[in-house]
Predict the structure.
Amino acid sequence: MFIISLILSFAIGISSFYLAENIYNEFREEKYLDEREKAKEYLEDLVENIEGNVDAIPINSFNNRLESRIKVNNLYHLSIADENGSIIFNGGLENLDSRDFLFYDTIEFNGKKHIVFVEGRYQNIDLEKEILAMLVIMLSVIFFVIIFFKLANKRIDYIDEISQKVDYISGGDLDTFIDLKGNDELTSLAGNINYMAYSLKERSKYEEKVERSKRELITNMSHDLRSPLTSIIGYLNLIKDRENETREEIKEYAEVSYKKAIQLKELTERLFEYSKITSEKMIVDKQQIDVNLLINQIKEEYAYIIRFNKLDLKTNIKNEKLEIFADPLLVVRLFENLIMNAVKYAKKPGDFLIETDSDKDFVFVRFKNKIKDKFDPDDLDKIFERMYIKDEARKEGKSSGLGLAISKEIVDMNGGKIWAETKGGYIIFNLKFHKSNKKE
């Protein structure tokens, strides 16, 4: 704005100077014409005065009289020459090296013709030029100030607008948006403030969602923990009283109580695990992991459990080294969760498949198992939500509703993606990780 104002004021100053100079030149020409006219009048008055008194005044008195007139009006140089060219009078303005105008006339003197010359220079105008230059400079400065503040005033108004919108945002109105005007630091600041307000709004929504999920988690877990605990207390009361119960009945009550206690233990462990994984203080120790090697190791460890639950485990592993950059302990937990999810919910007897694949940038892992019933699309969308459990699983006490939610948290923490789909009677859990240590 300073440079623009300087250039504009300079241009206006130059234009004003040339305009003022043209006006001044016209004024000067009029002034010169006026001075020349006055010189002519002076000559005419002088000739008329001389011719009217020349016979009555001696030559010495005549010269003295001319000297007096010259001193009274010391603006011209006066010369009188006789008809032979001899100068009989020379006086008035001295040091007249050059002249701006010259007028002459003839007079009769002592019976002879004489020529009277009036020479002169235009009056000094240096002071007028200096005043004109000062006026142009002052005008340029005034224009600079006006233009600069005119340009700056828009940005000052913009600063006021930004300040007002920031007050709205600080007051909690996160829908406030600052219009982006121009392309300077203020515009960049406004854009950053808009992004900040958007981030705060999204953060607020996320925190509200988390808080709501926590309330739902507490409510659902209270229900799930209460059910086995109530059963345990009921059967223990029967054992404690044991008035009419036989030994076999007491053993049966103890067996049921034991199973319910194990279920209660699993629920509390899942809750603790989920709380630990979702904690902001948890440190993710990422390393290079060979996915194929890890799957082969886990397959051997869980082979008995899978066969015991009447599932036929098959693998289709890409014949190359597939490395991802992730926390190995968390990835092991992720694979274990997906295997146990198949053990609990797969159609039995049936197939359970683990596949790996890759492209230029990503490694893909897929866990497939047959399902008993078709999945509703809404169920697929909710399957990774905390405490989401199919009604049948909840009634049977098979699930805590945290296994897949924990899996999703693990995948997110390691920069990957997880999603579910159904195809040909199978439910497929897809995992996608960046190869090596490439990051999103």
